[in-house]
DNA sequence: ATGAAAGCGCTAACAA
DNA sequence: TTGTTAGCGCTTTCAT
């Protein structure tokens, strides 16, 4: 049951390795007899080509690398499932790395994946990444990269995002329609694409309904809510305000659960005192106390589409004249954390 | 900024590739001058050895493969973080594959990882795996494997598990102490180690407290709760019984949330009508409605220890005379889903 | 102290 | 139709 190589087959069948190689790849120039012989023997011996050797030769690996902040997060793990299902069908393997919201680890992961000759990269930026030259260099060298979710603004390649602006607008408008006016927003670092877009949607909804935007109602969590104290601080600052908010729109999984936890500990009644909407794909939203109103992203579909685009890029290396930036619709799931009953506004 | 190889350095410095190679590995037989020259040039050109070439040569890769049911699961993703932190410190990369509770995918993933020359494997069996010969063969060939969580009974290698028996015993006893007597158990397929151990702990606690074990109170979910209808069916069967249970002990993340969801939909009051304890590491247990009493596994530590053992195996290939089977203590987090107040029993 | 050559497994250009 | 050879990047034995 030891690993068998082309050489072994060649020796056993008294052929040259190239003949065996060609036979295995069903080359037209090989005698049918020979082919049969080789194929049968290979089958019998359970021959499997050595992908390492292939990678060394061809500088590719039939695998794609995924770099994202963390997998212990419903949004990302759903997205991974979307990635895997497409990749699997197209004959690619998926190698996942977590940046844990660290720029250094993102760079290290990138280098490793590249040295491992992945054929392309699927990336969602860490919350601490402001410099993306490590990706730009690769793009310049011709390595296909598709960004998703947290995408760099300027880079010229395919991008898949949720309709962050629309989702936030909808969430905020929903809060307004349930009678809330002092709506706070807790979010990730401002330089992330998702942060800016969600903030913009929030702001636009306020202004469209005649509520002035108030920067002091916006709190930023530097580590995207990964550090527990961030949420604590953000919530506390809001509670300490003269005009305590009557609603909070939280911008991510981590921030949402983190804030909920703080509010619970402080025995704040949701939604009576403060209503909550989260931009989150958390799976148990309806099991929470109270069931959580949430803007849900089509994570699986985002994974699907990003992977399709990436594989297209890999398999058709001629640079497309135009790169796509797709924005997929979110859906607002209304539950009790926002009371549900809507009142008439404006 | 193209990839630079030893050959390039050799050419540039008018040396042979072997000299460069040795200089880079700081071999004693190389002239200090030459070494300095090479090192400096390599540094300047940002030389990085090609890991693919190394793998091809040495049949190893400084990477370890992880095969587990799914990552969209707090227990497993916490465990992965434990794995990564140790591996990272020891200079290994971690490649994660999901079996999605499918035997076929488990086998496919295994083969792929082996062909990619991982130096060792960390495995938690899929819920549909009954035949483990794919792992046994590898062990026979000398590939280090450490099993965790869902481990095969007979196989001779290191294993890291939670104290499933103890955790279940504690959970069940807790239910009994809160006055429950008709305690049901919803769990995974019986042939999984975790299922048997948890069932045994549950049973022992019942019997120790004079409650006869009743097989009809035990429901099995073939896909470990991954298929929504499984939970539905299990709960429904329990509700349809003549003696409807007054408590349910659910054996995993998926089963726990699945059952909670069904109970919510049926407007069953927890814990008044039915109390719930879950064997789960779900992160938001205290945010649930009601906050969930849970047996929590030291997932991160399990990942740490499994990885330490694996790397020890990899780096000291001499077969250890004895393999370890470590069982790590769980902790029972008591919350409102079991009322909290305990009554005096037996 | 340094270099030449072989080999890890595979494919493809070139020869026969 | 089949075989020979070189090369992907690296290390190591065996010269020198």
Task: Walk me through what this model shows.
Chains A, B: It comes from Dyadobacter subterraneus. The structure is a homodimer of 346-residue chains. The first copy, chain A, is an alpha/beta fold and 346 residues long. Chain A contains twelve helices and twelve strands. Chains A and B meet through helix 4, helix 5, strand 2, helix 6 and helix 11 of A and helix 4, helix 5, strand 2, helix 6 and helix 11 of B. The structure holds a DNA duplex (16 and 16 nucleotides).
Layout: helices, strands, pairs:
The structure is a homodimer of 346-residue chains.
Chain A: H1 6-13, H2 17-24, H3 32-44, H4 51-58, E1 63-68, H5 74-89, E2 93-98, H6 103-115, E3 120-123, H7 133-141, E4 145-148, E5 159-162, H8 164-177, E6 183-187, H9 193-208, E7 218-220, H10 228-239, E8 247-250, H11 253-265, E9 275-279, E10 293-296, H12 299-315, E11 325-328, E12 331-333
Parallel strand pairs in A: 1-2, 1-3, 3-4, 4-5, 5-11, 6-7, 6-8, 8-9, 9-10
Antiparallel strand pairs in A: 10-12
Chain A binds a DNA duplex (16 and 16 nucleotides) through residues 5-7, 15-19, 21-22, 25, 29-31, 34, 49-50, 52-59.
GO molecular function (chains A, B): DNA binding
Pfam families (chains A, B): LacI, Peripla_BP_3
Keywords (chains A, B): DNA-binding, Transcription, Transcription regulation
């Amino acid at each position: 049951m030891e690993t068998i190589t082309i050489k072994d087959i060649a020796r056993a069948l008294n052929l040259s390795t190239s003949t065996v190689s060609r036979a295995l790849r069903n080359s037209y120039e090989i005698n049918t007899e020979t082919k049969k012989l080789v194929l049968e023997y290979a089958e019998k011996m359970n021959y499997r080509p050595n992908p390492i050797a292939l990678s060394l030769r061809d500088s590719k690996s039939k695998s794609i690398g995924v770099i994202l902040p963390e997998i212990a997060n419903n949004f990302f793990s759903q997205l991974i499932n979307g990635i895997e299902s497409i990749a699997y069908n197209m004959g690619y393997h998926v190698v996942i790395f977590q940046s844990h919201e660290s720029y250094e680890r993102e760079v290290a992961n990138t280098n490793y994946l590249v040295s491992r000759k992945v054929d392309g990269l699927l990336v969602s930026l860490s919350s601490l990444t402001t410099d993306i030259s490590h990706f730009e260099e690769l793009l310049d060298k011709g390595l296909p990269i598709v960004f998703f979710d947290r995408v760099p603004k300027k880079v010229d390649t395919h991008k898949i995002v949720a309709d962050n602006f629309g989702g936030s607008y909808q969430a905020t408008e929903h809060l307004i329609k349930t009678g809330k006016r002092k709506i706070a927003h807790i979010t990730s670092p401002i330089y992330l694409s998702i942060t800016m877009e969600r903030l913009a949607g929030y702001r636009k909804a306020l202004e469209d309904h005649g509520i002035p935007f108030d920067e002091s109602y916006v709190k930023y969590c530097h580590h995207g809510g990964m550090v527990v104290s961030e949420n604590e601080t953000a919530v506390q600052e809001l509670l300490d305000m003269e005009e305590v908010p009557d609603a909070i729109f939280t911008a991510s999984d981590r921030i949402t659960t983190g804030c909920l936890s703080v509010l619970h500990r402080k025995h704040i009644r949701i939604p009576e005192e403060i209503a909550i909407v989260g931009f989150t794909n958390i799976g148990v939203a309806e099991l929470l106390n109270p069931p959580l109103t949430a803007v849900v992203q089509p994570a699986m579909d985002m994974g699907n589409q990003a992977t399709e685009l990436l594989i297209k890029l890999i398999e058709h290396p001629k640079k497309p004249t135009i790169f796509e930036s797709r924005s997929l619709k979110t859906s607002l799931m209304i539950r009790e954390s926002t009371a549900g009953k809507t009142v008439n506004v404006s």
